[in-house]
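Exercise 3.2. Students should predict the tertiary structure of the chain below and write it as structure tokens, then compare their answer with the key that follows.

Predict this chain's 3D structure.
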Amino acid sequence: MNDVHPWAPKPRSNLRTILPFAVFLFFLGLWTWELLAEKPVPDSIMRLIPVAWRFWLAKGLHVGGYAFLTVLAAFLPVNRLYFWLVIGGLVAHGLATELGQTFVNGRTGSFRDVLLDWAGIGLGVAAVLIFDRIRQGGSRNRRI
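Answer key:
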């Protein structure tokens, strides 16, 4: 016997639904872990990076990391409202991780880094909008 009501929505547990969330959450977790790590870059790798490049690479990672997460969010099988809620969550995540860094030995939180995180989110949204416009053939009907 089937206890499910015939008009009940069917559970959406297929790979196309679960995989985008799994990938997004994996990279968000990895990014959070690195942002809150005492030494996010091992000394063996740090020695290979010229001192003059370290600052710019670190700041570029803030922008690139959040831009990447924003683009990943565009692939989540959610409607427009939930996409923007995820983006709001990324905005809050940038602020929260910088605040969290103030409690990690050898790390300091920086409002400049929060602004860089937000700039990365803005770049990611712009990339998604441009891609959507190209894919739609210039149509104004956007996914986000």
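Discussion points: The chain has five helices and no strands. The helical segments are 15-35, 43-46, 51-74, 80-101, 111-135.
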